[in-house]
Write a structure and sequence with these properties.
23% of the residues lie in helices and 14% in strands. The protein is an alpha+beta fold and 549 residues long. It has two domains: 275 residues, no CATH class; 152 residues, no CATH class. Helix 9 packs parallel to helix 12. The radius of gyration is 24 Å and the shape is globular. The N and C termini lie far apart (67 Å).
Length: 549
């Protein structure tokens, strides 16, 4: 028999010595009374006074504000196991556990994880995996039955993964074997594999019928963080990457930086839908490897940068609407959490520059988190933190008079710029590059661009060619018509995806002209694939042409 038992509350101002004594006493009690060791899942209450769920306790309708005394609400439990998203971690004994503000679990480490269920195992006999290549003849999958439901502790960015051996980047050395001693200041990422693919993606409502299912082999993943000390109850989960487990708090969120823009509620995307998109961790430690399109969990995240950018952009604009804080709170917490995760990866050398449409949508969550937490750490990133939107945009002399240009960067090899050439002179890869500009990149960046401009963050983004590319795309009037010499403007330009992203198009039409005056970024630069070495930035001679100066 198992039942929950309330552990001692740690009130604000309690000395560390008292905390240690309480931990010793409660641990001794739990060892003396093994039948009383509590186990509970993520949807069970943290308080025995009345039933409650994670969402009502951690992400309730009353946002925590700066200066509010939340320490008095601090609660933790002794538990020998915890569960989330169908994944259960079992320990060798009871440890103090609790939940971060986004609902993810922490455990006071070091801790021995004796088992995770469903556990890592070879492919089940009823598994069905269809692995057709994409239109380029590529696939990120292989015929390998060795492992499903793998777990990782990720300390180094890169494509290698230990989750599912069907992925070509699989390495058994990257997969955790249980029992496992999880050090303090480490994060254990555990997964569940899809038994059958293709399967429906989390964000199918945003997709056209041909892309509502995916060949990705992972179903879901969850993060267990081993902490060195009990965090406050409004703490965000530290990044799941590396050993830097700095704590940020919901009470420090800068609500004054969110606007209250009018918009017809009937035309606003579903809050519940977008909250769900950010509910689970977006695994992004593969350095944008294109093989992730066949790997990343279908119930956690999109696998293609086009959808990352779309979802991040729409969510960011929703947070600037004229609705109560209570309506915004859950989505805000989850988007900020996404930025915290990405910033942790960037600190250790992570980058997102895979070319094509793979890795958009990573820079803005980091900057947004920094704005909302008022911390310059999110802006001052290492030189190795390279972002898709920046490497693909630069200034030059375009064939129809435009100065904000776009390039593919890489796709089955490095690709040269092409927009300076007249379309009559485009070669096959120039034409393919243009197709990616129109299908999968600039077309999806409007939400991020507008959200950044609304928050006066153009100089923080620090790459003006990104904003000018988006302006040229979203502008309804074709200011370059006379220079096109009869070649029509691409029909996709003038808005976002129709009809799925009409909200972005409508917000742009209403509020782009109302963004505040703000500084441009620093010296323009261009990503030049002809340069040697991993960092290929060169000075960009053209200056921004901006109306937000």
């Amino acid at each position: 028999m198992k039942y929950t038992r309330k552990g001692p509350s740690i009130m604000s101002g309690v000395k560390n010595k008292i905390l240690k004594r309480l931990l010793i006493v409660t641990t001794l009690i739990s060892l003396a009374l093994p039948l009383c060791t509590p186990t509970f899942a993520a949807n069970e209450p943290l308080s025995t006074s009345q039933p409650a769920s994670i969402s009502s306790f951690q992400l309730g309708t009353t946002p925590i504000t700066k200066g509010q005394d939340v320490d008095s609400r601090m609660q933790w439990r002794l538990a020998s196991e915890v569960s989330q998203f169908g994944i259960t971690w079992k320990f060798d004994k009871a440890y103090p556990v609790g939940q971060f503000v986004n609902g993810d679990w922490w455990v006071l480490g070091p801790v021995t994880v004796v088992e995770v269920t469903p556990g890592p195992a070879p492919a089940p006999p009823d598994e069905t995996t269809e692995t057709p290549p994409n239109q380029w003849g590529d696939t990120g999958l292989q015929d390998n039955n060795d492992l499903r439901n793998g777990s990782m502790v990720v300390m180094t960015p890169g494509p290698t993964q230990g989750y599912d051996s069907r992925g070509k980047t699989f390495s058994a050395d990257a997969s955790i074997v249980f029992p496992y001693s999880l050090e303090a200041n480490r994060s254990l990422i555990s997964s569940i594999s899809n038994v059958s693919i293709p399967t429906q993606v989390m964000h199918y409502k945003l997709m056209w019928p041909s892309e509502q299912e995916s060949d990705r082999v992972m179903q879901t993943a969850a993060v267990l963080t081993s902490v060195s000390k009990i965090p406050p109850p409004d703490a965000f989960r530290p990044s799941y990457f590396g050993d830097d487990k700095r704590i940020y708090r919901a009470r420090d969120l800068r609500w004054d930086r969110l606007l209250q823009l009018k918009f017809d509620p009937a035309d606003v995307p579903s809050w519940e839908q977008f909250e769900r998109y950010f509910e689970r961790p977006w695994l992004d430690h593969l350095n944008g490897a294109w093989q992730g399109q066949w790997l990343l969990p279908t119930q956690n995240q999109p696998a293609y940068g086009r959808e990352n950018a779309r979802i991040v952009g729409i969510a960011s604009l929703m947070l600037h609407l004229d609705v109560p804080r209570e309506q915004k709170y859950k989505l805000l917490v989850r988007l900020v959490q996404n930025g915290i995760d990405l910033r942790g990866i960037a600190e250790q050398g992570g980058y997102w520059n895979e070319g094509g449409g793979h890795t958009s949508g990573r820079k803005w969550p980091i900057l947004f988190a920094g704005l909302m937490l008022d911390d310059k750490y999110f802006f001052d990133m290492p030189e190795t933190a390279i972002f898709h939107e920046d490497t693909q945009t630069y200034y030059g002399d375009g064939w129809h008079g435009q100065s904000a240009l776009w390039q593919m960067v890489t796709h089955h090899g490095d690709r040269e710029p092409y927009l300076h050439k007249h379309p009559d002179h485009w070669e096959i890869w120039d034409q393919r590059s243009e197709s990616y500009r129109r299908c999968c990149t600039v077309r999806t960046w409007g939400g991020q661009s507008l959200a950044a401009l609304l928050m006066g963050a153009k100089h923080i983004w620090n790459h003006d060619a990104f904003f000018d590319n988006v302006d040229d795309w979203m502008r309804v009037e074709d200011i370059y018509a006379d220079e096109r010499n009869g070649i029509p403007r691409p029909p996709e330009e003038g808005g976002a995806f129709v009809p799925w992203d009409d909200f972005v198009t409508d917000m742009w039409a209403r509020y782009r002209s109302q963004v505040p005056k703000q500084r441009d970024g620093g010296s323009p630069r261009m990503w030049d694939t002809s340069q040697s070495g991993p960092i290929k930035w060169v000075p960009n001679k053209h200056k921004p042409q901006s109306d937000t100066d």
